Batch of 4 targets.
Target 1
Amino acid sequence: MSTDSNWDPWNYRNGTGLGSDAPAEGRLDLTGLKVQATDGHIGKVDRATYETASSYFVVDTGPWIFGKKVLLPAAVIRSADVEAGDVFVDLTKEQIKSSPEFDRGTADWTDTSHRDEIGTYYGRHYGGL
């Protein structure tokens, strides 16, 4: 996929119920939902944030990537179905598996350098809004 100049990784897309179009009663709670890549299940949402221009979610991949947790930018979510317990992302398993490693010993999920690296990495794979 090509990089789109409109790539805004840290905001949820409109139409997902998570962005600025969230229902009046509040945003969907993603915690615990299964994450579905374009080619299958990759794990569960461990944590999700909703800060303007800083939103992301952390996926616990369990045994699929040897217990690795990965940070995904909010904009990769295509849709969410809370009733079915699924979040759908516009990425393949391999793209997620090959994402930059997070070093838990030296940073937290809000680490600016890691987030910049993640935004750049997924921007190369993301086709646009």
Target 2
Amino acid sequence: MMMKSVQRAFTVGLMLSVATLASAAVTLKDGHPSKYYVKNGDTLWDISGRFLEEPWQWPEIWQINEEISNPHLIYPGDEIRLSYVNGEPRLSVERGVQEQVMNNGVVKLSPKVREIANDEAIPAIPASAIAAYLKEGLVVTRQEIQEAPYLVGGRDRRVVFGEGDTVYARDTRTQWEGLEQGYGIYRTGEQYVDPETKEVLGYEARQIGLGRVSNHEGEMLSLRVTSSTEDIRIDDRIFSTEDRRVRAVLYPSAPDTKVEAKIIRFFDRINSVARNDVVVLNKGLRDGLKEGNVLDIFGAGEIVRDRQLGDNVQLPREKTGSLVIFRVFDKVSYGLIMESSRPIYMNDSAESPVGSY
């Protein structure tokens, strides 16, 4: 499901001071092109990967073209050019390219002037892959669960509800009295536990419906279920449906400090994940992570039998992929896997890119 609001929220933020970027050396990819014409369906990450070994380093060699309006956004039809300034690689954009077929059949490309809406800009990462996690996923504390209003029943003594039904929730703290807005109906489940410290990092709350308050008397909330993705049941919790868009400018960047995290949760996968899958990490805001941070993923080396000495040895770990953080909570984060050379498993490490700290 491609959400237009999410597409609009992703614009290509490239005007970032070099002084604030990680100091890792930029390496051009073998066989890189000298130019590339942006197409529908491209992402900033994919385009960067055509030129660079590490796509997140795009801002380090971006050269602003002051002659075009809003040079921080990239659109289908734009031409990305690779050049060198004082021996250093630079990428720049030529806004909009017009195709013209000549008499000899050769396609001639020339710049053209046009007005383009900002929401047509290509996203930094695939918006469709993370839309549901922005809209429907929460990580909450045990206290937040205990204090949230919860469903106690509905009409006709039913215990299962859906779109169009009226349900009743008890709000013992009357914290939303007088507010007129929609709320999310959530089911709490997965407990996130740090695999090393055993600290409880939070609880997964999954949105299964939306409701609008029709009445509020004392501790009792009356809600009209406006939509549902599965059966709504007694004891489901009510949380505010805040607007959870990725910030308007998503900068690919290394964390400000060294981060060493573990993958602690898959979604809709059993044994392993790969490119365009979403994972949960055991690090968050308190550990210095923020939206747009890039982490390298490492898989543990296989344990093999040493036939000469007769004991078991562990082979060195290997980099198996990379991910971008797109949503951050206090103690955990959601990341989208952007690259994977091998299957990625639970408890694999996710760390700051080598040379960035």
Target 3
Amino acid sequence: MNIEYLKYFAELAKIQHYGKAAKALNISQPGLSHAIKTLEEEYGVPLFQKEGRNVSLSHYGKELMTDVEDILDIYLRMEERAAGMRAEEKTVRIGTVYPLAAGMVPRMLRESGATFPFVIYNHLTPEISEGLLDGKYDIGFCSDLLKSEDLEYYPIRDSYIAVVVPKGHPLEKRNAISLKDVADYPQIMFSKTSGFRKLQEQVFAAEGITIQPVCSAEEIEVITGLIGNGFGISVLPYMDIVHLHNLVAIPVQTSIWKSKFYIARRKYGIRSEQEESFFQYCKSIGE
């Protein structure tokens, strides 16, 4: 079956004139005649009948016309879907943990000279790992080592716990600090529905400190806003976003919590040249 010949068949059935149909199809009239003759030989029946200078569908042609229209409709939908898939394939889908979303990932995209279209999604490490494995993301930036034989991952930077204070705070000039030094200041924490709240509680518990927060919030953007407006300070895993506000992050000396950020992807897959280049650039940062 030649899909182009079926298109010619449908166009000739509509226009009912070889010369005009050939012009509409931007082919020669002999080329159109050859296509129709080939179809008639293939199906073993005449598809058109002459009516003076025009032609019309034979009764065989009329019976086949419905099927031809269905085939062409399916083919058009398939072409449209394939075009969408090609456009999507060129778009690099990046999943990143929140600490890197506002600063490091955009900066690496700029420094690597990335010109490809991309989409950035913010999630926690488990969601990013799952998204990489099921093909939702092409590249992931994660805060924990992903234990999967189907993924490759490389460290790109260390993470740490920091005390975040507003500019002008008495602790602002400290290069490092202990949790005991900050325990008496009003504390802002993540809400109990956030995955980061457990981490905050653990680092204080490791120092034998119990904290009752003055307020809490689900999102880091809200917490940084509360800090900036003087409601308190917060002990947070390091996040680039604090530098986008009028805030200071002071590393905590005594925290037992240590972690790294990783870049990850599926071990096998079809990759664009620019996607591969960006991955290798990010990988080289941690080497």
Target 4
Amino acid sequence: MKVLLVDDSRLARTELRHLLTAFPEVEVVGEARHAGEARAQLQALKPEVLFLDIHMPGETGFELLASLDEAPQVIFTTAYDEYALRAFEVNALDYLLKPIQENRLAAALEKVRPRLAAPVLPASPPAEAAATPLGAQDQVFVKDGERCWFVRLAEVRLFEINGSYTQIYFEDHRPLIPRTLQHLELRLDARVFFRANRQQIINLEWVESIEPWFSNTLKIRLRGGPEVEVSRQQSGRFRELLSL
């Protein structure tokens, strides 16, 4: 696994290189201090994985990616958590906060291995590709106030409107994110996530029971709660979706 380290901090590059020595399959083929150096080394060295800082002199990590015709698998390394959602929107595999922990680095590398044989994704996908559904095994970054989580979508049982935010139900957590259900519906895999009504999107894998409700509608109980009433129109779609 050939990797390139891009960070304007020599200390950060040295520390990451040291952490990567714990993974014998990883070969650090080069380092770059800024986007210009990274662009040249990407062309010359053809790394398979790019560990990329966001804030650098001149161009940011996002601007570097946008300038490339194609890019290797990308893992962002940064001291700032506010760019995580944007990072996943450009198909980053992971988002490591400094100081990088070895267990988080190991988890990021685990995501790389099954993808190395896959075609390289465009660094700056066209608009229609940006809406590629996120599958159940994809991981997303969630921040609510001072708390942060990396969550597999398979673990999320419900998205629910709460004022001008959307509340996410996973485990015992209920963080709020500044996203609309319309936005989420475009991003989520429709084979897994179903718009039950104007207020809620459910994960079909978490459905525990279904019962007829008023006016030909349905009531669905999710494992771990809560109960969700499916609108009349969506009840018809739900029956079609699950019928043979």
